[in-house]
Amino acid sequence: MITEWLPKPADDVKILLCGPPPMVSGLKKTTESLGYKKARPVSKLEDQVFAF
Q1: pLDDT digits (tens, 9 = 90+) for 17-32
Q2: Which of 8, 12, 14, 52 is disulfide-compatible with 18, CB 3.0–4.6 A?
Q3: Exposed/middle/buried for residue 24 (C-beta within 10 Å: 0-12, 13-18, 19+)
């Protein structure tokens, strides 16, 4: 279902995550498995996957 709604990984695509910590943690792993750059423990503005 996630692949139906997320754009394909590209340099001009940013994924913004917000929610309960277990959900954000799971989505960080999922986005990495889909080909997005690995999310850092503390997000920076230039990250492809940014967690609030």
Answers
A1: 999 999 999 999 999 9
A2: 52
A3: middle
Asked whether the CA dihedral 38, 40, 45, 46 is positive or negative, the reply is negative
Q: Taking the model in full, what pTM does it have? A: 0.87
Both structure tokens of 16: 């913004």
Please give the pLDDT value at position 2. 86
Task: Write out the DSSP string of 5-42.
Answer: HSPPP-TT--EEE-S-HHHHHHHHHHHHHTTPPPPPSS
Give the position of tokens 């940013």. 14
